[in-house]
Design brief:
single chain; about 450 residues; alpha+beta; Rossmann fold; Jelly Rolls; 2 domains; 6-stranded antiparallel β-sheet; 5-stranded antiparallel β-sheet; 10 helices; binds calcium ion
């Protein structure tokens, strides 16, 4: 990898410090030739498209994070893109970083924008896009559009019409202030030569119009140069999408074998054609976000309000022994954990009272603790709405010293805004422990936004 590929500025996105990024290198061999003239089949260099796309983006007047998918059945299929948000088995560090960046930036519903109103439908060609792109841009006004047409065009369009209309569709997007990521089409059984010619046309458009490209065609051939085609006799034992190469038994669509579902390891990317397409799109979109798009402003946090507070200075509902012996002056009374638990060395229960508080959109639990004799500390919040505990381990607790700790309890876990919590549990040490000690004080639940009813 040459130095040029490692150029990335560090930035903060959704709490993640974004550090050197090799994404530019993944989809192409262009990086390997450094600053030499691009080979005929290479995508435009980032040094070319980044400034060009910044210029396009300067004219953009829509909502930040809007990502459109324009294409045919290979795009409308939910085997593409949608599943990335749930499963990324075998993802390398680069993909993990790319996903975090995209997840923090893209509007959440853009994983799932499917149907003709969103610019994707089965059996369609670039003619359909050419007729409808004005409406899509007006209605969706995407910040970035990923475009791939051509597989259906192979049967009915000559190269010239395909290339001209693709070029015009891209240009309309750019004129709207919408950045484009172009994609070459996959190779197709029985029309491999024409598919290669169409792919080359898309590379040409990307270079001419200075837009980034995911070279799906080249990436498939790189991974399966001789047996990408699931229609081959050697795959006759398999059915439909279940074939373990990159194109299905129909010779047209990307494969999606169950064995490699959600698998983005090198093996998965050799065997699941939809995963490969999702992967390439993710890496390229992340690169665009990182290198072209302005950092997304963090929404200002609403003031926090206290939903529950217990300082053990008067009557209340808890299990544990209240003491003021040897406690810090500012804490006065604290509660000491007991050893009568089946699973943990010390336990404290704190009830939230007769009117259990509903969690706010963003909810924090803050408490003071004193732990010694164990480094295992865990908090449970009992969620009345799911009738179960939500667990929050405290990794590496401070030992032998009163410490204040805050957990964001509504972040990604089962505890959702609006859910009510009636008990909090604090645990330390293993069951039967003789040495574990646990004390807790100033248990406070705060929300930064009113809970939805
Ligand atoms: Ca106290």
């Amino acid at each position: 990898m040459t130095r040029i590929c490692l150029h990335v500025r560090a930035r903060r996105t959704a709490g993640l410090v974004f550090t050197p990024f090799r994404m530019a290198c993944l989809a192409t061999a262009w990086c390997l030739v450094g600053t030499a003239a691009p080979a005929p089949s290479a995508e435009p260099a980032a040094e070319v498209w980044v400034p060009a796309m910044k210029k396009v983006h300067a004219e953009f007047n829509g909502e930040q994070g809007t990502f459109a998918l324009f294409g045919d059945s290979i795009t409308v299929s939910k085997a593409f893109w949608l599943g990335l948000q749930y499963t990324r088995n075998g993802a390398d560090a680069e993909m993990v970083q790319a996903f975090e960046l995209v997840k923090g930036y893209m509007l959440e519903d853009c994983w799932d924008r499917r149907g003709p109103e969103y610019g994707n439908q089965g059996r369609m060609t670039i003619r359909w896009a050419h007729e409808n792109v004005d409406a899509w841009l007006k209605n969706l006004n995407p910040e970035v559009a990923l475009i791939m047409f051509g597989t259906n065009d192979l049967g009915s369009l000559a190269l010239e019409e395909y290339e001209t209309k693709t070029r015009q569709v891209v240009q309309k997007c750019l004129d709207n202030g919408t950045m484009v990521i172009l994609s070459t089409i996959p190779p197709k059984h029985g029309q491999a030569e024409k598919a290669a010619v169409f792919a080359e046309a898309v590379r040409r458009i990307a270079r001419d119009l200075k837009v980034p490209l995911t070279d799906y065609h080249a990436e498939i051939l790189k991974r399966r140069p001789d047996d990408w085609d699931g229609a081959m006799e050697k795959f006759s034992a398999y059915q439909g999408y279940d074939v373990p190469t990159l194109i299905s038994r129909d010779g047209v669509h990307p494969s999606n074998p169950r064995q490699y579902a959600g698998d983005y390891s090198a093996e998965g990317l050799r065997h699941n054609g939809f995963n490969l397409r999702s992967y390439l799109a993710l890496i390229k979109y992340a690169e665009v976000i990182d290198r072209v798009l302005p950092a997304k402003a963090e929404p200002p946090e609403a003031p926090r309000r206290t939903l529950f507070f217990q300082d053990f200075e008067r009557d209340g509902d808890w299990d544990g022994t209240v003491t003021d012996k040897g406690t810090p002056a500012s804490n006065r009374h604290v509660v000491v954990g007991h050893a009568r638990d089946e699973y943990y060395g010390r336990k404290i229960r704190v009830g939230t009272g007769n009117a259990p508080p509903a969690m706010a959109k963003t909810t924090y639990l803050t408490f003071d603790y004193y732990v010694e004799g164990t480094d295992f500390l865990m908090v449970f919040l009992f969620d009345l709405d799911i009738n179960d505990n939500c667990r929050y381990p405290i990794h590496g607790p401070v030992l032998g010293k009163w410490t204040r700790h805050t957990i964001k309890v509504t972040r990604g876990g089962p505890l959702k805004p609006g859910h009510k919590v009636d008990d909090l549990f604090f645990f330390a040490g293993e069951a039967g422990s003789r040495t574990a000690r646990l004390m807790v004080d100033n248990v406070r639940i705060e929300g930064s936004e009113p809970a939805k009813p």
